[in-house]
Amino acid sequence: MAQLGMDTEQMGALGKAMQRDAAQIRTLSKQLDSQLRGAWWKGTDADRFRSDWDGSHRAQLERVAAALEASAKVITSNVTQQTQASQG
Prior knowledge:
single chain; mainly alpha; 0% strand
């Protein structure tokens, strides 16, 4: 018979790591944004790069952070369900 379930301790740690990493990605994004805005850089290349950063790159980092948070919530919910099922 196949074994079903999860190691709730391991999965709980994974959920916390995903939350922590999402926060770290957001912090890094803000730091990079601040450095980019504070850097002296003029010209067409600068304008194009800032446009790409504002229009795409920063948003992609936010999507990754949001996906990690959503995954962490799913894991937390599954850990809770598994714990309840195991208790009776």
